[in-house]
Fold this sequence. Notes:
Radius of gyration: 25 Å
CATH class of the domain at 141-374: Alpha Beta
CATH topology of the domain at 141-374: phage-related protein like fold
Structural class: alpha+beta
Number of helices: 12
Amino acid sequence: MDAKNEHRPAPLRSVEWLKGFDLDMGAYDHYAKDGKTLTMALQEHKDTKTELSPYLGLTIGEVIQEKKRLRAAGQPAPLTAFEECWKELGIQTHGAYTDVLGKVYEYSDSDVLFPEYWSNQIYVGLLKTSYVPEFVMGETVIDADNYHKIYLNTLEQNRELKRVGEYEEFPEVQILIAEESVKIQMFGAYVTLSYKAQKQQRLGLFNKALEQIGLQIDVDRMDDLVRTLRLGDGNTNTPGTTVTTAATGTIATFDVIALATGAPTPYKVNKCVWRKALLQEYLTTLADFDNPIATFGFMSVDLPRNFEWDRSSMVTDNAIAVDSRYAVEHITNGAVLVESEKIIRKQFTGTAVSHGDCFTIFDNNAVVLFDETH
């Protein structure tokens, strides 16, 4: 890398709304203490200087979803404050004519912003085809390695509301703290890039490489979600109901109905994850009907939405169905953490990329195991 470019003027200092914002490497740790990413902090600062944007207070994942919603509604999706900084720097990051990666290092401002660029682009890949949002009831961001969930006492007689007469006491419904904590699992990789590659590689292809890292992180955390649904989170909360097929090794019409109605009242099975072969059997059974959704809907049987997850985290002859409104909670450290170092002796830049996730069963009555082997 050309050393003379490392101290070029910082062009963002002329941006009016950025005045008063300390844009340096220390900003990452400073805002992380308040649970904010650099993207969130920049947006908050800009919105105090200009009109409010639709992205105030949103994580990068929520920003991505909000942009999709705006475009689907035929509305413009404005740039985030972070994206405006890139535009002001004149660095072309997307499209057919992207700049070379080395241009990022020409200014001190772009060098500071680059770890956040990594983080955001990896998150694009992480969410691109993710099934995790389909199965979780919500996401909780924590700044810790362990998490104790809360839950209602699962015995119905202990949480059932009672008819209360005049001067009678209300029954007690307990909200408990789980005995066992769940531990955040770190998923990550160490990415190396030679100085030569930095000078020659264009950002368009580099974006795709970052997306692939995000995609692999999502695969790993989905495996973790599947194992949690199947085995519980350590608090004696494995699937509340097991539905077995009427005949071993065969899925019949009765079994389709048994799965769809397998959760106890008032829960409703609405999502189901399968290994490929078992899903093919299930869909073959449905193929016997001209219009299975209408056929079963006529009987007031709502079929779940199905997802294929053909990995070893799934047992071959089992499927897992959930009421995604109550089944599982997603615990995360938030943004993808990016930390870089220059190894001058070997002429490359090394970047550690990590993301912390875990899952807890909120109500095991909302989890149903489908078993073809019994």
